[in-house]
UniProtKB/TrEMBL annotation:
Domain DUF2147 residue range list: 24-139
Keyword field contains rRNA-binding: no
Keyword terms of this UniProt record: Signal
Protein name per its UniProtKB record: DUF2147 domain-containing protein
Length: 141
């Protein structure tokens, strides 16, 4: 019985420590210009991973709203908008959730994976993972 409790505790601690590696603030980079666009805070809530925009780096867009979004996100301020929704740990990546593109208002399937301690691979796609776009975000220190 003691071994089962210790094994369960070890698995729980491992899962918690792994998710902590993606938790934090990440700088997003524009695909076309290569310039930093925003800061996204990735956090865990009830075993799932989420990400919200906490800062837009272009001061002229600080008051932007998600005009193209639908549902509860429609016309909401982009700062504070949850764009990564409900990812679950799956080995060395997180998937099973969605990512929102605030410019187009479209939701895509998503997975994220650490490339190294300070670099996060973020892939949004439709249908199959091969049909999508990858960005690399950089940890804010």
């Amino acid at each position: 019985m003691k071994k089962i409790v210790l094994l369960s505790l070890s698995v729980l601690l491992y899962a918690t420590s792994w998710s902590q590696e993606v938790v934090g603030q990440w700088k997003t980079i524009d695909d076309n210009s290569g310039e930093a666009r925003s800061i996204v805070e990735i956090y865990e809530d009830e075993g799932l991973v989420y990400g919200k925009i906490v800062q837009l780096l272009d001061p002229s867009k600080a008051e932007a709203v998600c005009e193209q979004c639908s549902g509860a996100d429609k016309d909401q301020p982009v700062v504070g908008l949850v764009i990564i929704k409900g990812l679950e740990a799956d080995g060395d990546e997180y998937n099973g959730g969605k990512i929102l593109d605030p410019e187009s208002g479209k939701l895509y399937k998503c997975y994220i994976a650490l490339e190294d301690t300070d670099r996060l691979k973020v892939r949004g796609y439709i249908g199959f993972s091969a049909l999508g776009r990858t960005q690399y975000w950089h940890r804010v220190k």
